[in-house]
Write a structure and sequence with these properties.
By secondary structure, this protein is mostly beta strands. It is built from no helices and 26 strands.
C-alpha cells in the first residue's frame, strides 16, 4: 500500500488498489513519461499505456481506482490539477510494444487546488472502497484532506482540516472512512485517527510515551495489527501493536533492520494479528518476510526488476510486481516460509526494562 520531518520512506514506483485488481505507475524515462495501468486480477497481468498528447512531468502522481480508471495529479502553473484517465477503446490483449501502440486515452478533468507559496500536495494511498480518492495538502502549520474523486460536487472537496503538519496516511477500516495521519505538533509527531464521515473529527491513536515520536506505517483492519515506527525505545525502531489492545507496543529485536520499510500486511486474519504476514523492503535490493508470532525475519534477494511494492492475499501468498525486458509486466509470487522451532530456554529471560504506555484505543465509533 508515501514529508515533513516524519517517517522517511521511499515511494514505490507502482501503486496497487486495495483489492489488488489494478495498479498504476508513470512509465518511460526522461521527457517521455506516460501513465500506465496494470491489470492484475486476470489469468496473466498486462499493462495498458495511457499516453496523452504531452508527456507527463516526473513529479506527477498516479493512483488506480477499482473501476480501472487512473487518477493523475499534476502541478500545472499555479494549480494542483486532478484528472481521471481511461482507455477510450476496447483493449484485451497483452502489453503493446510501446506507448503509441495502445488505445487512445480519455481524460476527465476533476478541477484543482490553488498552489499557494509553500503548499505541498500529494495523493494519499488508494481508499479501501476503490471509488474515492484523497490528497493531503500541507500549508504551514495546517493540513487539509481533499477528496478529489468519488463525490458529486465539482472540483475537490474539503474532507478535513487539521492543525499541525501531517504526513503518512494509513486506512484503518474497509469502508474508507477512518484515516490515520502522522501529525507533527508542538515538536512531537503522533499518529491520529481522522473520521472523514464526521467532517474530519480527530482522535488520538498512538501515545507510546509522553515524549516519543510515534508513526503508523501499516494497518490490517481485519486483525487490528498495526506496524509502527517509534523512538520510545531510545532510537527509531519498528514495532507492532493491536488496535484496541491493552498490551504494550512490542519492538522485536529481529525487526532491528537498517533502512527497512514495511509495505504490505496480510488481510483476512480476523482477530489473529500474530498470524499476519508482513513484507518489508530492506534497502534497494532485499526483501524481508515476518510474522508477529515469529522471532525470525526471512531475508531474500529482491526479484529482478521489482517495483518496490506488493500485496498479500488472505491465504498467505505475496504478489510482487516486476518489470524486465523479458517480462515487462509480471508478478512473482512468494509464500510465507514456515517458522523454525522456538529455542529452548533453561532460565527465564530478563524482564524488559522499557514498559511503554499501552497502545490507546481511539474512540473511532
Amino acid at each position: 500500500m508515501t514529508v515533513c520531518a516524519t517517517e522517511m520512506t521511499t515511494t514505490a514506483p507502482l501503486t496497487i488498489t486495495a483489492d489488488g485488481a489494478y495498479a498504476a505507475r508513470l512509465a518511460g524515462e526522461g521527457e517521455a513519461r506516460y501513465p500506465e495501468r496494470w491489470t492484475l486480477d486476470g489469468p496473466e497481468p498486462y499493462a495498458v499505456p495511457l499516453p496523452l498528447a504531452q508527456p507527463e512531468e516526473a513529479d506527477s502522481e498516479v493512483l488506480p481506482l477499482a473501476d480501472g480508471r487512473v487518477l493523475i495529479h499534476r502541478r500545472v502553473a499555479d494549480r494542483h490539477a486532478f484528472a481521471l484517465l481511461y482507455p477510450s477503446g476496447t483493449y484485451t490483449g497483452p502489453r503493446p510494444a510501446g506507448p503509441d501502440a495502445g488505445p487512445r486515452t480519455g481524460e476527465l478533468q476533476l478541477g484543482g487546488v490553488e498552489a499557494g507559496e509553500g503548499l505541498r500536495v500529494r495523493l494519499l494511498p488508494p481508499s479501501p472502497d476503490g471509488r474515492t480518492a484523497y490528497a493531503l495538502a500541507v500549508d504551514g502549520e495546517e493540513t487539509t484532506v481533499w477528496q478529489v474523486a468519488g463525490h458529486a460536487s465539482e472540483g475537490p472537496r474539503r474532507a478535513a482540516v487539521l492543525p499541525g503538519r501531517c504526513s503518512g496516511g494509513v486506512w484503518l477500516d474497509r469502508a474508507g472512512r477512518l484515516l490515520s495521519l502522522d501529525r507533527e505538533q508542538d515538536g512531537r509527531t503522533k499518529a491520529v485517527a481522522v473520521d472523514l464521515a464526521r467532517g474530519g473529527v480527530v482522535t488520538p491513536l498512538l501515545q507510546i510515551a509522553e515524549d516519543s515520536d510515534d508513526r503508523l506505517l501499516l494497518a490490517a483492519p481485519d486483525s487490528g495489527l498495526l506496524l509502527i515506527r517509534s523512538d520510545a525505545p531510545g532510537e527509531p525502531r519498528l514495532g507492532w501493536g493491536v488496535l484496541g489492545s491493552a498490551r504494550p507496543v512490542r519492538f522485536p529485536e529481529c525487526l532491528r533492520l537498517e533502512d527497512a520499510h514495511p509495505f504490505a500486511v496480510q488481510p483476512g486474519q480476523v482477530l489473529m494479528p500474530e498470524t499476519c504476514g508482513v513484507a518489508l523492503r530492506v534497502g534497494a535490493s532485499e526483501l524481508a518476510l515476518w510474522r508477529p508470532a515469529d522471532r525470525h525475519v526471512f531475508r531474500l534477494p529482491a526479484p529482478a526488476g521489482w517495483l518496490g511494492t506488493g500485496r498479500w492475499t488472505p491465504d498467505g501468498h505475496l504478489h510482487l510486481p516486476h518489470t524486465t525486458p523479458e517480462s515487462p509486466c509480471g508478478l512473482v509470487t512468494l509464500t510465507q516460509p514456515s517458522s523454525p522451532p522456538p529455542p529452548v530456554h533453561l532460565t527465564p529471560p530478563p524482564k524488559p526494562t522499557l514498559r511503554p504506555i499501552p497502545l490507546q484505543q481511539a474512540p473511532l465509533g
